[in-house]
Amino acid sequence: MYESLSLEAAVEAATGELRRGPDRPLACLEVRGLGLLVLGRLEEARPAFSELFARDPDYPLQDPSLSPSMLGVIVGIRDESRPLVATGRARWLVRESLRLDVQLVGGLRRAERVRFEAETGPDVQREAGSMPLVGRAATATVAVPPNATINALRLRGEVLDAEGKVLASFEDRLVLGLRPEAVEASASPVPWPIFAGAGVVAVAATVVIIVLSQPRLPDPKGTLGRVPL
Questions:
Q1: What is the count of structural domains for the chain?
Q2: Are 96 and 143 in contact (CB under 8 A)?
Q3: pLDDT in tens, 37-65
Q4: Would 210 be classed as within a structural domain?
């Protein structure tokens, strides 16, 4: 019925079959969702697609004639229906600082922030906090004592929505890369304007010394000139 464009009849038949029992065939969910979508009844089609993809995230749809906009709607619902999974990573920024990253895949379900706890080893240092979610990623920076021996990290936490509901939990044990060496403090170089100023003073002093060391010569009138007191 759907393939012959009897859309109303196809939706009715699929809905009746879905009401028969708890097995709810996936093909009937597909026909109901597609029929309602083509009829322009997106909000009614969404629950059918959501259930279909929740039960089988990779279920192949069998209608190649769908428009790009309809395919985009289906892809969006498929992504929203996938389980939300969080994965943690960590890397050194400098010797005293680690960057933590949490990446999300699947349906975000209005996730807004990530609450985390980081524990380093073999020297145990603990840090806990919350980081806002930007798109599908959350980032935080934690301080590490400069002389602690650290080569591993346990990162765990929860993904939360605006009301604080836990949408997903995660725990990752990570091996850190080579820790950066400490940056040695070096003497600050003397700014070039100081060198320039010292040079000007030295030249001026030399000129004054040369002038003062010259003998007093007669002026055009044959006198030694006048020296102001």
A1: 2
A2: yes
A3: 999 999 999 999 999 998 998 999 878 88
A4: no
